[in-house]
Amino acid sequence: MKRKPITETTRAAAAALILLLGAGCVVGPRYERPVAPAPPAYKEAPPQGWKEAQPGDGALRGKWWEIFQDAALNELEEQVSISNQNVLMAEAQFRQAAAAIGVARSALFPAASGSVSVTGSRSSASMLGSPPAGVGSTGTYVLPLGASYTADVWGSIRRGVSASTAEAQATSAQLANVRLLFQAELASDYFQLHGLDGDEELLQRNVKSYGEYLQLTRDRFAFGVASDSDVAQAETQLYTTAAELTDVQVARAQLEHAIAILIGKPPAVVSIPRAPLRGSPPVVPVEMPSELLERRPDIAAAERQVAAANEQIGIAKAAFFPALTLSVSTGLQSSSFVDWLSWPSRFWSLGPQFAEVLFDAGRRRGQVREAQAAYDATAANYRQTVLTAFQQVEDNLSALRVLGGEAEIANDAVRSALRSVAVSTAQYKAGTATYLQVITAQAAALADEKLAVDLLTRRMVASVQLIEALGGGWDRLLAPPKTGIGP
């Protein structure tokens, strides 16, 4: 069998097809990051502590919890990324999104298929009009190979890859945000737990002191110096404080259980030694507000979702243009097994196909409007995420500033209250003051001491929340790509 010569028409068609494939354009809007409001400075930042951060000078990087210089906290935080089930779930979702990039990218290449078919048949001798000579068995042997390729003339496939990449990058940032969320929750619970240790230590000391005062009052009552009312008041004070101590112990146990779950362990195997908080919270480095857009993983995730939504607009608009598919099939076909794998048994076919929707009752226009509305929604969510981030930073800067001033006042109040207790006690023992004055002074001293302990706890928690609001140790520009999909 002679091969047919390739005509000039065939060459021209092939050349035109190559040019068309090579000159494919991308329809739809070009992506630009939405403009988000960023103030030149934080309103609540203390003037004496504010300066524009230079590259790398004191900025939090990586293990932000080490700023608290607490070895026990460091050990607990290390377990969040490897044992917390919510973090592991987010990590699996990230791997799923990263795998989707390969699925989308595969559409840029031809799809090939092959099969083997052996079919036997026999004519019926009972068919009316069939001569006996036609009765017999036949076989068909087919070895086909085929390939098809949908040309990305209008860029819809490339936009699909870009959308999948943006979604994977958003999922990567969401993973970082989930990790930061649970790390910050662990640190907050840790400081609240040790804050309760301070309350417990304070209450135990007062329970012991109130017990001694009760015995003193009973002795004075036995000698007729004090009244039974004084004894009742001393008992009431002791038992009330002991009950409050029990509540503190219950709350501490619950926080200890919560920490166990955060590090992926059952509460029964986690025990945190008691250690009341001491000292003051560390100074948290605060960078310029514009840096927050690169430091918050939730902002990065929201921005990548906007990018993915932008690609969907292009995909929807590409549906208005014709689709070009190039199909090729070849193989071997014969009715005889002996001749099946011979050169004369070959067959082939080749041809492009253009397909265009002529009427869809506004379906594609609706899809474009739907994609545009989805983009507007994700852009609004991005801007709202930025605004919320600034609010959280300002809230915690304000909390640290106000609580710091309140702590100084509370410490002064504690010193005055303790002096009042000493004076009223001496006067009571001398018989120049009633026991009611002693109890009043003791109650005021306990309240002031507890306020001082609780303020330190709140300041430590506010420091953690400020670090979380600043993005922890994450940085979009420095975070290494985990899938090779780009920054």
- What is the count of helical runs? 11
**CATH-level-4 superfamily name:** Outer membrane efflux proteins (OEP)
**How many distinct folded domains?**
1
Largest sheet: 5 strands, antiparallel
The CATH topology annotation reads as: Outer membrane efflux proteins (OEP)
N-C termini distance: 58 Å
Order of helices and strands: HHHHEEEHHHHEHEHH
The first-level CATH class is given as: Mainly Alpha
Oligomer: single chain
Supply the CATH architecture.
Answer: Up-down Bundle
> Rg, please?
38 Å
Report the principal-axis shape. Answer: elongated
Kindly state the percentage of residues in helix.
Answer: 55-70%
Query: Helix/strand-derived class?
Result: alpha+beta
Query: Which band does the percent of strand residues land in?
Result: 5-15%
Q: Mean pLDDT, nearest integer? A: 83
Q: Please tally the β strands and state the result.
A: 5
Pick out the low-confidence regions: 1-6, 48-57, 480-487
Summarize the structure.
The chain is an alpha+beta fold.
Could you explain how this protein is built, in words?
The chain is α+β, with helices and mostly antiparallel strands. It has a single domain, classed as Outer membrane efflux proteins (OEP), CATH 1.20.1600. Helix content is 58%, strand content 9%. The chain has eleven helices and five strands, in the order H-H-H-H-E-E-E-H-H-H-H-E-H-E-H-H. Strands 1, 2, 3, 4 and 5 form a five-stranded antiparallel β-sheet that branches. Helix 10 packs antiparallel against helix 11. It starts with 7 loop residues before the first helix and ends in an 18-residue tail after the last helix.
